User: Which sequence fits this backbone?
């Protein structure tokens, strides 16, 4: 009985010690594809991302507010620049060596600036799925797939949803 109480107290004290707030700044390299509707060709995208997750971690599960900014290019003719800032909610689990997570971006907005001055904004939602792999106690390599569904362009409804599928490889440090 004494050993059982000792084991339970170690488990609960360890669990309490692992709970608390965290901040994870991260950087990454993004590659993706913008799938246009109406038979238009798919366009490749690439760029750099900078983000911050701030949240609360229990023993294994965690929840965070996730802000991510990306700047890059759209491989079109003429070439175009893209930039976006996403604010969403991410939930995940921290188990030894890996941190799987899923997130939702309720209002995704991507600005496209075509060489020559024209620009416009895509608006929609996003869903992310990611995996952090611990390489040091505070450092993760993150692999993140984000699927955006755009329903509007410059405030007008698109006749057919356009999708932007991205894959980001990054490095995060959790404090």
Assistant:
């Amino acid at each position: 009985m004494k050993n059982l109480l000792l084991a339970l107290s170690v488990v609960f004290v360890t669990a309490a010690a692992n709970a608390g707030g965290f901040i994870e700044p991260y950087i990454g390299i993004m590659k993706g594809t913008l799938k246009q509707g109406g038979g238009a060709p798919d366009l490749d995208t690439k760029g750099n991302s900078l983000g911050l997750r701030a949240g609360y971690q229990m023993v294994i599960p965690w929840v965070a507010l996730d802000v991510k900014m990306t700047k890059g290019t759209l491989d079109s003719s003429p070439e175009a620049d893209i930039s976006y800032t996403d604010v969403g909610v991410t939930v995940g689990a921290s188990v030894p060596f890996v941190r799987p997570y899923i997130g939702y971006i309720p209002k995704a907005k991507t600005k496209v600036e075509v060489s020559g001055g024209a620009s416009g904004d895509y608006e929609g939602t996003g869903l992310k799925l990611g995996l952090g792999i611990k390489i040091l106690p505070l450092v993760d390599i993150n692999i993140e797939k984000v699927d955006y569904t755009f329903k509007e362009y410059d405030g007008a409804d698109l006749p057919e949803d356009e999708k932007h599928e991205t894959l980001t490889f990054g490095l995060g440090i959790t404090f």
Notes: The longest helix spans residues 2-18.
